[in-house]
Amino acid sequence: MKHIKTKPACLIMVGMFVTASYAVDVQPRAGEPLRTLTASELSRFEIGKISFNTDLTVEGGLGPIFNQTSCGSCHNNPVGGAGSQTVTRFGFIGKKGGFDPLADLGGSLRQAEAISDDCAEFVPPEANVVSLRVTNSALAFGLVEAISDADLLANRDAQPEAQRGSAHMVSNFEHPTGELHVGRFGWKAQVASVLTFSSDAAQNEMGLSNRFLPFDNAPNGDEELLANCDTVADPEDGPDAEGFDFIDRVTDFQRFLAPPPQTPKSGMHGETVFNSIGCNICHSSQFTTGSNPETEEPLRNITIRPYGDFLLHDMGIAGDGIVQGDANGQQLKTPPLWGVAYRDPLWHDARFSAGTFDSRIRDAIAEHGVFGSQGAPSVDAFASLSGDDQNSLIAFLHSLGQVEFDSDSDGDVERNDFHGYSDTIGFRNCFGSAVTPNDPCAIHDVDQDGDVDLDDFDVFLLAYDDELADCNENGTNDLLDILLGEADDDNNGILDECQTCLGDLNGDNTLDVSEILAMIDAWGPCENCAADIDNDGVVNVNDLLYIVGNWGPCP
Question: What's the domain range around 523?
Answer without folding.
Answer: 500-555
